Amino acid sequence: MPGVLDATSRNDALRKMANGPLDILVVGGGITGAGAALDAASRGLRVGLVESRDLAAGTSSRSSKLIHGGLRYLEQRDFKLVREALRERDLLVSKLAPHLVRPLPFLYPLYKKVVERPYVGAGLVLYDAMEGTKRPVPHHRHLTARGALGRAPALRPERLAGAMVYYDAQVDDARHTLTVARTAAAHEAIIVTRASATELLRSADGTRVTGARVRDEETGRTLDVAARAVVVCAGVWTDPVHEAGGVRAGYQVRMSKGVHLVMPRSAIDASTGMIIRTEKSVLFFIPWGDDRWIVGTTDTDWTGDRAEPAATGEDVDYILAQANRVLEKPLTRSDVTGVYAGLRPLVAAAEGTPTTKLSREHVVDAPVPGLVSIAGGKFTTYRLMARDVIDAAVAGFEGEPVPESVTDQLPLLGADGLPAVRASARRIAEDYDVPTDAVEHLITRYGSLVTEVLGHIRRDRSLSGRLADGYPYLRAEVAYAVSHEGALHVEDVLARRVRLLIESPDAGVSAAPEVGAIMGSLLGWGRRRRAAEVRRYVEFAETSAEALRSPAGLPPAPAAGKLAVPA
Ligand SMILES: Cc1cc2nc3c(=O)[nH]c(=O)nc-3n(C[C@H](O)[C@H](O)[C@H](O)COP(=O)(O)OP(=O)(O)OC[C@H]3O[C@@H](n4cnc5c(N)ncnc54)[C@H](O)[C@@H]3O)c2cc1C
Q: Does one domain contain both 474 and 517?
């Protein structure tokens, strides 16, 4: 079936890759690699993608989850980046992924009456003016202090001089990445997760890259994949991938860690997102689903393990302190239910440049014939990054010219027919005998593919129940993650297909046995394998929540004692 990723066809996919040759082999299944696979496949090329862990397991599941122009880049005079990003935002909201990318208002409180309003106001006029002519998101507005407190009673009223409201957009980053990869698969790209490129293959004279050696991380087997071009989209892993291939690229990647806190909606009384300035950058208060906030972020150099960047107690306290500068009722660690950290892949500049000052624009390099790599950029501009890196890859192809990128005309899976599906939510609910709000929830995640998810419920009624109390996810979503979304392990489901890892105070641990059972019944896992999968998830979740337990002189967070697998 087009666009289906499942464990049972994984072996066939690996075999198909090995039988090659491919036109393009993409290394890395974050948003950049998924985007590159879609760009190339939709130009009619033969494409394979290998991802060491799971789709979006790196930075692409750990961002602020904003599709934005980046208001603060205006201050850095990065006008090109802002303009491009705003256009991409509008394209995603209106055409490419309206089921996944939603407009979101942000309140920008003003504290210096005379200077700040004209300065920020002018910035927002420019921000709005940089969009295309069709506006899928509203214009910015000015508010008085009273108006600001009406929308955000949580703000401390002293010194508040007023506020601006402007719009950006929001996305579930991991789900978006997965959907781009599935859309690429629908255009015949071969997508294989838990498979790493370990070496680059060379022509006999050593002057050309001709493919990559790939290790299947599930079995340990290796295979050689021949391709006319290898496209490295490895984010913060770019340098080690280059090194393993004996390649000296024209740039290096610096890692900057960004931490976010997750807390319940009740912790901050506001009906809108908020952005405040900090000494070094900005802090976002981002509504997440109906019940939570995401608050962040930080920006510090990182030199540790790329796979599991660790938030520290200091990071947590820094974010709380910044937030408390503007909040009437201060937040404490006991308000924090989740924490996550991600690594920005920034293109390196001279030693000593603070990471906050490095440009967020992307760089494409072709250090050796047959090899192209890309780094930098941001989630919002992934489609342009993908276009640029594939343009560079096919520039070296001999023979027929390759068509130009068409992804600006290509709605992602689930976008087609969305208005009709939204209008039919009640009828669909009746047909599948589930509550209408469950269907509405599924539409925000799967768009017009909603009935594929509900198909699992028709086959097995027990899958109509909620996966965890107080969360909208249905058990059927776990089954769908396996049958259509390439989930191979419990972590793939709880960390990225549903977001209980960051949303729930126990990091999804109490749901892990249920997830293991549903996955196991579809993947043929015995009792021991299920138990091992659950154990592996608990270890992973404990590491992720470590920062909430670190002392720093503060009381332990409530999550501490809860990371035990229920009997
Ligand atoms: C804290 C934070 C907040 C952010 N907020 C925003 C935001 O709000 N909006 C925005 O637009 N951008 C944001 N960004 C930036 C954005 O998240 C990143 O630019 C983007 O996710 C990078 O995607 P990527 O595909 O390049 O890298 P990644 O997502 O890291 O993907 C690289 C992949 O390559 C795989 N890989 C590595 N080596 C190999 C190998 N040898 N073989 C196979 N696979 C391999 C890795 O496993 C990984 O999955 C934020 C970033 C951070 C850190």
A: yes
Name the residue range of residue 392's domain. 7-60+174-252+358-409
Q: How many CB atoms lie within 10 A of CB 222?
A: 14
Ligand 1 site, CB within 6 A? 27-33, 50-53, 57-60, 62-66, 68, 196-197, 233-237, 241, 258, 297, 342-345, 377-380
My answer on whether 247 and 259 are in the same domain is: no
Same domain, 429 and 492: yes
Compute how many other C-beta atoms are within 10 angstroms of the C-beta atom of residue 82: 22
The answer on 120 and 246 residing in a single domain is: no
Pairing of strands 162-170, 253-264: unpaired
Mutate to test the pocket of ligand 1, among 26, 372, 379 (most ligand atoms within 8 A of CB): 379
Q: Are residues 333 and 477 in the same domain?
A: no
The answer to whether position 91 is within a domain reads no
Cα(503) to centroid of ligand 1, in Å? Answer: 20
Q: Mutate which of 378, 383, 489 to test ligand 1's pocket (most atoms within 8 Å of Cβ)? A: 378
Domain identity same for 332 and 465:
no
Q: How many domains does the chain have?
A: 3
Residue 322 and residue 453 in one domain:
no
Provide the residue-wise pLDDT of the chain in tens; the chain has 567 residues: 679 999 888 989 999 999 989 999 999 999 999 999 999 999 999 999 999 999 999 999 999 999 998 877 777 777 888 889 999 999 999 999 999 999 999 999 999 877 777 777 777 777 777 766 677 888 888 999 999 999 999 999 998 999 999 999 999 999 999 999 999 999 999 999 999 999 999 999 999 999 999 999 999 999 999 999 999 999 999 999 999 999 988 888 999 999 999 999 999 999 999 999 888 789 999 999 999 999 999 999 999 999 989 899 999 999 999 999 999 999 999 999 999 999 999 998 545 555 555 556 889 999 999 999 999 999 999 999 999 999 999 998 988 899 999 999 999 999 999 999 999 999 999 999 999 999 999 999 999 999 999 999 999 999 999 999 999 999 999 999 999 999 999 999 999 999 999 999 999 999 999 999 999 999 999 999 999 999 999 999 988 877 777 655 344 433 333 333 333
Residue nearest to atom 49 of ligand 1 (CA): 58
Comparing C-alpha atoms, which of 288, 230, 213, 187 is closest to residue 502? 288
**What is the C-alpha separation between 78 and 442, in angstroms, rounded?**
37
Q: Residue 341's domain is classified under what CATH number?
A: 3.30.9.10
Question: Which alpha helices (DSSP H) does 2-160 contain, by range?
Answer: 10-19, 31-41, 71-75, 79-91, 113-129, 145-151
What is residue 347's DSSP assignment?
E
